[in-house]
Amino acid sequence: MDSHKRILGIIYIVSGILLLFGMMLVSMFFSLVIPWISENAGEGQWVFTWLVPFIRSIAIFVCVVIALPSLIAGWGLLNNRTWALTLALIIGCLRLFSFPIGTAIGVYTIWVYVEDGRRRQNPA
């Protein structure tokens, strides 16, 4: 079971890093495209003065809420922390709605959690 926790920890670290990388790409895309659209907007330029910081703040919020707990759970699983599997279960349940890869990660997380609970009840 420890090997499955290690695999799950690696999966959470990799997915957290990919989420951070994806959010950086989205932020860079909007930082490049929105000023160009703003120049060609004419009278509607005032909208873009608050739109760019708003999109950046949403990207930072998503990174903090989604990617950071994934990295923390992965680190905890790799270091055999008792709380890490519970945090991974919460994140895994939230990822069930992200089809198809998030669903697979969520199902695998639930399976590891259930098997770990079964192993703790029946240590023999």
Explain what this protein looks like in three dimensions.
- This protein is mostly helical and 124 residues long.
- It has one domain (2-117).
- It is 85% helix and 0% strand.
- The chain is built from 4 helices and no strands.
- The mean pLDDT is 86.
Core attributes:
single chain, 124 residues, mainly alpha, elongated
Summarize the structure.
The chain is mainly α.
Low-pLDDT runs of 5+ residues are: none
**C-alpha Rg (nearest Å):** 19 Å
Helix content: over 70%
Give the averaged pLDDT, no decimals. Answer: 86
- The assigned structural class equals mainly alpha
Cα distance, first to last residue?
Answer: 14 Å
Order of helices and strands: HHHH
Helices and strands in order, then pairings?
Layout: H1 2-39, H2 45-78, H3 84-95, H4 101-121
